Amino acid sequence: MPNKKVIIQESLSTFLQRHNAEPPEGAIDDIVLDYVVSILEEIGSEEDVQDSFDVEGFSEMMEAYIPGFACIESTLVTEWIFLLTEKLKTSESLSNGINCTVIRHSEFEIL
């Protein structure tokens, strides 16, 4: 199962290509990925997610690393962020399910 940064990098690259905001080579680095991870974790921990996400602040920060990001409509950015949050939750659930299956299988082998 790919880790969070890999999923985010692939999703961000696809999102940027769809909206004609091609980043310069190496622009999607660990700093950008760590920033997006922190935003997604913050959203995932909030109960009222719609009010907690500052799309303008997020777009400004991303614009500093990826020129053209601020030109993407805020509704599209918000939609992408929430879809990515759900994708990561699903990925984590699947990963946890696989671990449980392995543990259960191992328990049966011990008995």
TrEMBL record:
Q: Where are the transmembrane segments?
A: none
Which UniProt keywords are listed? Cytoplasm, Nucleus, Ubl conjugation pathway
According to its UniProt record, where is this protein located? Cytoplasm; Nucleus
GO cellular component assignments = cytoplasm; nucleus
Query: Main site of residence?
Result: cytoplasm
Cell inner membrane: present as a keyword of the record? Answer: no
Q: Which PANTHER family match?
A: CUE DOMAIN CONTAINING 2, CUE DOMAIN-CONTAINING PROTEIN 2
Q: What is this protein identified as?
A: CUE domain-containing protein
What organism, scientifically named, is this protein from?
A: Capitella teleta
